[in-house]
Each structure stands twice: as structure tokens, then as C-alpha cells.
């Protein structure tokens, strides 16, 4: 009770302490700017308008479930007509600039949301649905407003190019809600429509800018139209090319491993977009700016995806999403504040409503007929036609543009009174389009989606999530995956269990996890015996990256696919264990159920440093990795399940040079549904430390702690690095007839392997290093593992009982080599020998190696 009261007082004090900073900020602004931020000032009233618009929009969304932007627009109209806000010419210019910034955010988000894979796969459908319906509605609006609102042709086409744009702010959330419950997922309809909407927005803004620039340029109208006819296409090409180059540059500068890569990339896109929009307008190439913004976002996202950032779900996209939260009420509130109801002509409103509704119907019909060849049925075509009814963002951003130019004194060549009528009519129609079509579009998508789209259950239909391959094998085609899954489904329908299938030089294995995910493994080359363990490790890696709950509840397949990309490097390292040629890699994986390590004299000192570091960052487990091998661990690291410890090792190896990275991870055995925080730091080239810690300290603080804890250990780490690739201390010597060695600590499930045991070259022995290690690995997997039944992991982590009695050694003999394995207590040694060595000599040498490993002071596990 005392604690609760005390916390109540603390919270109350904190709330009261918010007032002084706010008052001080207001006081500073008042002293510098003056009456504009006073209670009767323009800046103060504009701030109140934006805050009120945000709050009313939020209430509108909660009460009606319709887009919040409608409430924001109504707030702006109400403030203007109740005389709660007033803007002079100087602040109208600020209003215009804020709307341009909002337009940059809209276009950049459109570019970042374009998925190159979707465009490559469905480019015809995206272009058909993005361009042809837009063109039909643009022409329909132009013709109808020319005859019903008496707008000149160029003004009516200006209006048509703007009104024809679809609003992603309305369409995208509604489509994603349908996608999350499985509607239209099988054919990728939500993804195609979102991509088409981005294309629609881009072309709409570009054409609007070209027409507006032609209208208000100096010279005769005929000359301006002729000039626009060749300058328009050139500006489009220039915008796409320059924007693409800028986006490509942002994938290189800053480097992806830069600590400040996220803010620098955001600033590069944002400032580049502002520069493109303002400079293109200044030089008379208005169409280039919008397309440059979209192109730069698209190309940057394309290259960032190759670097591991997910399209439309990367840190830069998130910053733009947050920025839009602030600029959405600014855009719609200020657009609404341009409308004075008493000044509107009732006839204009009536005719504009007829034009809008009629043209929406025309566009829906046109969409149905122009979507031929897209692989859609009639219901899906009708649904896409209905999604194109929603208007909002582009109309709000561009609606007042013509009126701003007229009010600033520029002219298109007509009489001043006529230009004001045309510009006010365009503003009225743009606001009316938002008021009518935004709620109508949201309702139609929500109601028609479940009725017109098929619902797909991924656990029943079997949607492919990913496919990975290693070695020289060709990638598995979609048709092959579908056929293999069909075989498994057929067997399940007949209450049969498909364990595996033998094919030429290999085998296929099916294994189901969480009753929702089926993994299909195909192995060739003689190591099919480890395929089941491989699939188990792949499933662990999936849980490690996204959590078990996400895999059990496969509602949003597209999201799952994107999230799983972060585990691809881990999966690739795992697959190397079935590819003999991968042993030439600097990060070989050798065997799946062991943690690859190397032994060095400095390990004990490094363990003390790790314990100190883990304590400083309030971490629970920590490890040091050199060249992909575990060198030292904190004292409690072995609380982790061996498979979890191995995943930690692979996570550090997959950091790809990043100096400091914060990754949420799920431990498949210990915590499959609650994420831990894994922080990986690069100390030197190919040297990483990984620690699992809490939400604090911040990444910047950890950076400082790393410097404090590890600066004095640089020379020790450099000495430890010299052990690689021998992986054994130099104080351990081996007979020349030993061609390769694999040593396993059974309790800690760590293994040390080497094919570089001797300082002199062994090229003359007729066996490559990769071949030697492949023989050792095969020997361990098929024979030597039986000497340590504790290593055989089963589901639920139960150890298999010892079925081999007191057997402590085994061997292979062939014409070209001999292998011998012997166990002594907790250590298992597998050695590869030349074929000329006698068996009794082999046994003596292996026994001597085991004795040296147990007595040498430089060996520290």
C-alpha cells in the first residue's frame, strides 16, 4: 500500500513538472518571434489547429473506424469557417512549404514501399492497374468538368490528373487488414494493388506538376503547351535516372556497417527529395522532381534489401512512417482551412459531386476491362475496381497549389477573376473528393473484400515460405516444391507418414513442426543421414529469429516471409554442413550438433574478460568468436541448450562486418515466445563478442563499455588469432602421419577440427584438405558418434540411453586412408591417418593425443 501511494505521488510530481519546460519553450518563442505565438497570434492558432486535428482524427478513427484524415479535414474546415484560424500571406507561404514537405514524405514512402520482386514478377499487372485506370479517370474528369463546371481544357486536365490519384493512406491499411486474415494472399492481390497505387501516385503528381508548370510559365499558352509536350517526357526520364542514381549512391554512402547509417540514410533520402522537388520547380522541370523522389526511394530500398533490410519495414521506412504521423494532420487540417463554405458556389458543389461519382463508376468499370491477362477472376477484378475509389493524400497536397499561385500574383493568361474561380473550383473538388471517396473507399474495401476475395489458410493450402540451396545444385523450382508438398499431403490424407524417399544419389525428407510448417530437405553426396538433424536445426533457426508463436499462427504469410529473411545467413551456414566444397569457406560448419571452437592458451584470460564485460552490461550469457569459432565463453554460457549456443555463434558469424548490432532473438528451448536482446560487437577483423542482456544499457552506452572492457585485451586477442587455422595450441605436436583431427568435448558439445596440423605442407599426400575434412566428418556422423550417445539430440531434448555398452573406440580402413576414433572420459578424438600406418600404431598415436589434450596446460575448454 505504501509503495502504491508513493508511486502515485511520483507520477503526480512528474506530470506537474511537465509544465515549466512547456512554458519556458513558449516564453523563448514569444520573446524571439513576438505576437505571432501569442494567444491571438497566427502561429499559435495554426499550432492549435494541428493539435486539434490530430486529436479529432484519432477520435473519429476510434468511433467510426473510418480513416482519421477525414476528421482532420473536417477540423480544418470548421476552424476556418468558425474564424478560429487566420493566416496572412507570410504564413500562407509557410503553409505551402509544409504541404510540399508532406508531398515529399508521401512520394518517398511510395518509393520505399515498391518491392522489386513484385514488380519483376507482376510488372505487367502493376503497370496495367496503375496506369490505364488512372488515364481513363483523368480523361473522364477532364471532359465532365469542362462541360459541367465550365473549366478550360487545360484546367480540367490539371484537375483530372490530380483527382485520378488513389490514396495509399486509405487503401494500404484496409488491404493489409484483409491480408492479415488471409484474403487474396494466394494471388498476391494486396501486394499487387499496393505497388500499382504507388505507380498511380507517382505518375499523377508528375503529370500535375508538368501541366501546372506549363500553365503558369511566361509566354503564350500555345507555346507553353508545345514546350511541355517535349519537356514533359524529358523531365520524366531525367527524374527517373537522377533519382535512381541518388538511390544507388545511398546504398553505398554511408556504409551499411556505419553506426549512424540509419539517420544518414534517412537524411539522404529526405533532403534529396526536398532538393528534387524545389529545384525542379525552380528550373521549370516540375515533372522530374516527384519521379526522382519515388525512384530514389525505390532504388535505395532495392539495394538495402540486398544488405538485409526488409522492403517497407526497414529503419528508414519507419522514420518516414513516424514523420507522416506529424505531417498528416498538418496536410489535411491546412487543406481544410483553405475552404470557406460561404464562398462556395452551390452549383459547383452539386456538379462536382455528379462528376466525382460518375467518374468513380467509370474507373471501376474500366479497371474490370483493362485488367485482362493479370490472372484475376471476375470477382477479383471488381474488388480492385472498388479499391481505386479512395482519394485523399495527393488531393490534399496538390488541391490548393493552383490557388496559391493565383494568390501570389502569377497568371495563366486568363482574367484574374476567372483564374480565381477555376482555382477555387479545383480546391473545392479536391476537398469534396476526399470527403466523399475516402470513407466510401474504406467501406467498400472492408465490406467487399471478404465477399469477393478467396480466403487462404496457409496451414491447409501449403504456401511456400522460402527455399535455400548450397553447392552446385540448381535452385528448386516452385513446381517441384508444390509437387513434393503434394506427395506429403497425399500421404497425410491416407494416414501415412512420409519419413524419407530415396532418389538418385540422394534422399528427400519431410518433417512437420508446430502443426503449421513443413520443411522439405533434399540432400545428395552421401550425407543424407544428417538430413533430419539439419531440418531440426533449420526449424530452430526460424524460431530463433521470429519466435514460435509466429510460426504456429501463420496469419500474415507475406510478413512471415519478410521476417524470415534475417535468418537466411544462418540457414546458409547450416546448409554448408551438407556441401563438401563449402569446407574451403572461412566459416565451415563441419557438424550440425556441435559448436565449432579452437583451443588457445589465452582462453582463460578471455573468459575473465567476458565475465567482467557481461557484468558491466548486465548480461546473462556472453561469448567471444574468432574466425567463426568459439574461443571463450562467460562462466554461465553453458546454461544454454547446445543448439541455442550454436545459433548464437552463427548469429555473430552472420553480422557481415557490422561494428555493433542489436538483435531480438528467441531461444528455441528456453524461451521460444519471449525475445531476448542479443548485442554483437566487432572488436577486430573476424573477432566478435556477443552478449545476451536486458533492455538497458542503450547501444551507445554498450559501445563505450566495450572500449573500457576490451581495450587492454587487444594484444591478447591478436595472439589468439594466430592459432587459426591450426586451431590447436602450438605446444601440442602431432605425428606427420596424422592428416586431420576432430576433437570433441562431449559435456560442452564443443568440437575442434583441423587439417593444418603441421607447419610443413602436405600437398604431396594425394588428398586435398577439403577431402580430408569431408572424410573425417563422414566418419564421425556414421560411426564415431556412436561412442558418445549423449550427443544424439531428440525432440524435447531427452538424451538417448547408452545402447553400446562400454565401447570406447572404432575405426575405418580403406585403400587410401584410415580413420580411428577413441573416447577417454569426456573427450572424443577422431583422427585421419595415411593408409600405410599400421593399426596398432594408429591406436597408440590416438591414445597419446588424448593424453596430451588432458595434460597440456594450454588446453582450456
Automatic annotation (TrEMBL):
<feature type="transmembrane region" description="Helical">
    <location>
        <begin position="316"/>
        <end position="336"/>
    </location>
</feature>
<keyword id="KW-0812">Transmembrane</keyword>
<dbReference type="GO" id="GO:0016020">
    <property type="term" value="C:membrane"/>
</dbReference>
<keyword id="KW-0472">Membrane</keyword>
<dbReference type="InterPro" id="IPR043972">
    <property type="entry name" value="FUZ/MON1/HPS1_longin_1"/>
</dbReference>
<feature type="transmembrane region" description="Helical">
    <location>
        <begin position="421"/>
        <end position="447"/>
    </location>
</feature>
<dbReference type="InterPro" id="IPR043970">
    <property type="entry name" value="FUZ/MON1/HPS1_longin_3"/>
</dbReference>
<feature type="transmembrane region" description="Helical">
    <location>
        <begin position="232"/>
        <end position="253"/>
    </location>
</feature>
<comment type="similarity">
    <text>Belongs to the monovalent cation:proton antiporter 1 (CPA1) transporter (TC 2.A.36) family.</text>
</comment>
<feature type="transmembrane region" description="Helical">
    <location>
        <begin position="157"/>
        <end position="176"/>
    </location>
</feature>
<dbReference type="InterPro" id="IPR006153">
    <property type="entry name" value="Cation/H_exchanger_TM"/>
</dbReference>
<feature type="transmembrane region" description="Helical">
    <location>
        <begin position="131"/>
        <end position="151"/>
    </location>
</feature>
<feature type="domain" description="FUZ/MON1/HPS1 second Longin">
    <location>
        <begin position="621"/>
        <end position="710"/>
    </location>
</feature>
<dbReference type="GO" id="GO:1902600">
    <property type="term" value="P:proton transmembrane transport"/>
</dbReference>
<dbReference type="InterPro" id="IPR051843">
    <property type="entry name" value="CPA1_transporter"/>
</dbReference>
<dbReference type="Pfam" id="PF00999">
    <property type="entry name" value="Na_H_Exchanger"/>
</dbReference>
<protein>
    <recommendedName>
        <fullName>Cation/H+ exchanger domain-containing protein</fullName>
    </recommendedName>
</protein>
<dbReference type="Pfam" id="PF19036">
    <property type="entry name" value="Fuz_longin_1"/>
</dbReference>
<feature type="transmembrane region" description="Helical">
    <location>
        <begin position="348"/>
        <end position="370"/>
    </location>
</feature>
<feature type="transmembrane region" description="Helical">
    <location>
        <begin position="98"/>
        <end position="119"/>
    </location>
</feature>
<dbReference type="Pfam" id="PF19038">
    <property type="entry name" value="Fuz_longin_3"/>
</dbReference>
<feature type="transmembrane region" description="Helical">
    <location>
        <begin position="188"/>
        <end position="212"/>
    </location>
</feature>
<feature type="domain" description="FUZ/MON1/HPS1 third Longin">
    <location>
        <begin position="738"/>
        <end position="855"/>
    </location>
</feature>
<feature type="domain" description="FUZ/MON1/HPS1 first Longin">
    <location>
        <begin position="459"/>
        <end position="574"/>
    </location>
</feature>
<feature type="transmembrane region" description="Helical">
    <location>
        <begin position="285"/>
        <end position="304"/>
    </location>
</feature>
<dbReference type="Pfam" id="PF19037">
    <property type="entry name" value="Fuz_longin_2"/>
</dbReference>
<dbReference type="GO" id="GO:0015297">
    <property type="term" value="F:antiporter activity"/>
</dbReference>
<dbReference type="InterPro" id="IPR043971">
    <property type="entry name" value="FUZ/MON1/HPS1_longin_2"/>
</dbReference>
<dbReference type="GO" id="GO:0016192">
    <property type="term" value="P:vesicle-mediated transport"/>
</dbReference>
<feature type="domain" description="Cation/H+ exchanger transmembrane">
    <location>
        <begin position="51"/>
        <end position="439"/>
    </location>
</feature>
<keyword id="KW-1133">Transmembrane helix</keyword>
